Amino acid sequence: MIVLIVNCGSSSIKYQLYDMPGRKVLAKGLLERIGEGASALTHRRGEEKFEIARPIPDHKTGLSLILSCLADPGRGVLKNVREISAVGHRVVHGGERYSNAMRIDQDVIGCIGDCCDLAPLHNPPNLVGIQECTLALPGVPMVAVFDTAFHQTLPREAYLYGLPYEIYERYRIRKYGFHGTSHAYVTNRAAKLLGKPEAEVNLITCHLGNGSSMAAVRNGKSVDTSMGFTPLAGLVMGTRSGDLDPAIIPYLNSKQEYSRVADIDRMLNKKSGLLGISGISNDMRTLGDEAAKAGASSRPQLAINIFCYRIKAFLGQYMAILGRVDAVCFMGGIGENSAAVREQCLAGLENFGIAIDLQKNRNFPRGEECDISEAASRTRVLVIPTDEEGWIAEETYKLCK
Ligand code: AMP
Questions:
Q1: Which of 68, 89, 132, 153 is the most exposed place for a label (fewest CB within 10 A)?
Q2: For 188-233, what is each residue's pLDDT tens digit?
Q3: Contact (CB, 8 A) for 369 and 193
């Protein structure tokens, strides 16, 4: 069964074509800068890479270019796009309604529309992707896989803020959590690696990339997570601040430079985090290189230290919440690739039953799943390359097969 996965952003479309079951990737690509004149499609078939630069005014034209690439005799992998049996859409916000992937119907489309207010940058382009795919592939079943769904099992004490209850009722302000497909996928893999049923595993999953979040998982279900009402909350990220004292916002707003709330919002989302602290870069590799040159008291090193400190603080919170932790899991660009960050986050946790094997942590084969804990560590430490698209393909296949 051929399954197409589509992730529509405001000016981009990411896609992957799978042969299911088995999650074999047939082709994938990224169309960028839609509507900006210099649009570019990078399309991959196995090791082959094709670059197509041409103006793409809108998502409809973009999608039709992608579909024609997939069925192109020179670049494609299909004889005809009618071979596509289902389409899985990544949708950022499913509000409080969806705790699972859903076959898309008018009701689901209505709910995604209702959540546009909660995710104004993401849900509207997600909807456009669904509408355009429905027009281009009539009769093909579509599935929505929500970034928020995995965290819908949070108990009320975890998802409510200490605000007047009416604010939650009136404006739906609560913790939703994001990166759900990654936390769900890694939970599923960790259970297999631990040799336990998913419904019996307690985990702390750490998705560390340009955007970062952690989740506390009890009996296979998310019971707390570090992102909140929006993906700005929690850990220090590439360019996002993570948690801060809310009183900072009105205080800054009283200053001339930040008298517009939109400027504060931009600073918190685009100029903070690793980039803001280091003053150099949001990229962990660059910071590691610069810190090695500039020394322990340099700002790149300070950015790394703050990043790791916050992760360790959340680990402590989640250990206290869970009581028993079977494994701490690392995924995402930093979580999978930075031995130094993993080592720094877990340093000194031996008394809490967490000890990593420093050699294994540094030397295991890149891109593979690995248990990097010491044999005596009560809690296992697992590195698990995440596969969000593969998980969306799995969910789509399950609902449409
Ligand atoms: P993601 O958003 O998941 O693609 O992750 C991007 C982040 O992963 C960036 O900060 C990269 O610098 C970081 N990253 C990727 N490879 C490495 C590596 N080998 N060592 C340290 N950080 C890395």
A1: 68
A2: 999 999 999 999 999 999 999 999 999 999 999 999 999 999 999 9
A3: yes
Q: Looking at 131, 146, 161, which one is the last position of a domain?
A: 146
| pTM of the shown model | 0.95
- Would the CB of 332 count as within 6 Å of ligand 1? yes
**What does the alpha-carbon distance between residue 128 and residue 289 come to, in Å, rounded to a whole number?**
41
Output the CA 167–ligand 1 centroid distance in Å. 37
State the residue range of the domain holding 260. Answer: 197-388
State whether 232 and 86 are in the same domain: no
Q: Which atom of ligand 1 is nearest to the CA of 282?
A: 10
Of 63, 79, 62, nearest to 71 by C-alpha is 79
Ligand 1: which of 235, 338, 361 to mutate, most ligand atoms within 8 Å of CB?
338
One domain for residues 105 and 204 = no
> 209 CB less than 6 Å from ligand 1?
yes
CATH number at residue 307: 3.30.420.40
Question: Which of the listed residues 146, 169, 184 is the one where a domain comes to its end?
Answer: 146
Residue 274 alpha carbon to ligand 1 centre in Å? 12
